[in-house]
Amino acid sequence: MAKRLSFLSPLSRWLWLACLSSLTSLVVLPEGILAQPVVACKPAEIRSQISKLAAKGSEKDTALQSLIQCGKLAIPDLIQAMQKHPEIGVKLGAADSLAKMGPPSVEQLTQLVTHSSETPEVRTLAIAALAQIAQTHPTTSVGIIQTLTERRLDNQENVLIRMTAARALETIGTPPPIEWPEQIKDWATKNSAVTIGLISVTGLGLLYLLILGLKPRCLLHLPGTLTIPNTQIELPSGLLLWLKYQPRVLDRWVADHLPQVQKQFLKKPTVSDRAIHIPIQIKLGSEVQQHLSAEQLQSTFNRTPATLLIWGEGGVGKTSLACQIARWGMGRTGG
Predict the structure, then answer these.
(1) What are phi and psi for residue 276, nearest 5 degrees?
(2) Lesser CB count within 10 Å: N end or C end of the chain?
(3) pLDDT digits (tens, 9 = 90+) for 21-30
(4) Is 331 left (phi over 0), alpha (psi -120 to 50) or beta?
């Protein structure tokens, strides 16, 4: 039996995690939380993709998508490309990439706009990118409008920057009301690790409830330790024991094993020799029972823990009564 369990535990754990992974993979995550194709986001690769932004056609589109998928990792190099790259095509492509990344790039673009030491060329590109983000991500529009309004109203600001900010504000117009799905999507994108952890926990909970309802006995094969996928959260041993040994799980285990246990129990000589039970007068607590029944013992065995002391002189039928109580417990009333 021990060898069998040692074989099943790793297998059960693998099946458990595989089911959970399948379940969480069905959840539709907001764009940007999980990368789609695998993209190399090492610094050298990012710089290589940035250099291709001056190209045309599919090469430029591929580079743009690769940088967008790298997300925050690519932002510093894209900002540097806007500031220092000699090719105007790369500068425009870098600004476009940052605009398509959305909320993650707002902070860096805002710094470019507000730093008067930057060249007007770079600042106007940053303003255009912010205007595009405000239009596609309403949750960012309030902060962006405030930044651009300050630039437009600052009398000491560069004239080109003031004019560009004014045109950008006209383009943005009145920001649409922020809807909950958009807020949730932006929050999930900014906090991807937390989002994936929450989805994993939710998926694990749903999977547990599904197994508890359909195949509760399978929960007995939960491993001794379990780490929630996509997180560093390891379930405490106490919680695992509580999950494994729910009353419904134990009831299912007992129901599955009861026929075999009954068969083996009734074969024992001590039991088979006392197949016919003759009721005798019993004192249960302070009351004398002429014919003890299973119902009269129900309250005793409903307690946790349940204990029953059978006491009497030798030969009065203690063992016979114990065997009869066992038959009652297994659902057999026969004698």
Answers:
(1) -100, 120
(2) N
(3) 443 343 344 4
(4) left
